[in-house]
Amino acid sequence: MSSTPYFLSGTFAGAPARRFAVLQAWLPVFLFLCIVAVESTSWLGSNRTSQPLHHLLRTFLGSSIDHNWAYTHHILRKIGHFTAYGTLSLICFRGFRLTLGNMTSWAQRNLSAHALAIGITLLVACADEFHQTFLPNRTGTCSDVLLDTVGAVALQLLLFMAQRLRGRVSWDRWQLRSKRSMRPLQSAIAPSL
């Protein structure tokens, strides 16, 4: 039996290499969590983002954005929740994918990374909304936790489908077909050069 932890065994067997690999895998997650923490402050509450966003969008879209701005601002903030937590789940997936060792198969490691990424995103969303209940200009809501989790699940499903599609499509075959289809054109051009 190895003394290397389960999640670091295999690929990251040496101590310096293991530390570097863990840092490389999880530093992006830490940095993104710092962004989420800053976003969760009272400085970026709805009352503080409305005016700058309104000015920015009015610059590009004109005065048409003035109609029903409160609703538009609300939707923009919810899109931000969905996108940010979906992105967090992808970054967590990468971290788990890089550090999960000793799994019996690629599929088991991948599915574990998907599930763990969604779980971490749910925990961060709960912590974020709980923190916002203590801020004067923010409110913590269960609907935001649900929206954040749906964003994580949606992006994980897209990633899973892209991985499945990538596994079924042979890109080498596509390149060979494109090279064969270019041969008559290349042979017509090459002699003239």
Short note summarizing the structure:
This protein is mainly alpha-helical and 193 residues long.
What would your notes on this structure say?
This protein is mostly helical and 193 residues long. The protein has one domain (6-192). It is 75% helix and 0% strand. It has six helices and no strands. The chain has helices spanning 15-39, 46-61, 69-99, 106-132, 142-168, 171-189. It is elongated, with a radius of gyration of 23 Å. The model is unreliable at 173-193 (pLDDT under 50).
Cα-atom Rg, whole angstroms?
A: 23 Å
Shape, principal axes of CA atoms: elongated
Total helical elements: 6
What is the N-to-C order of secondary-structure elements (H for helix, E for strand)? HHHHHH
For the biggest sheet, the summary is: none
The unreliable regions are 173-193
Estimate percent helicity: over 70%
Q: Structural class, from helix and strand content?
A: mainly alpha
Distance between the termini: 64 Å
Strand content: under 5%
β-strand number: 0
Give the rounded overall mean pLDDT: 82
Provide the domain count.
1
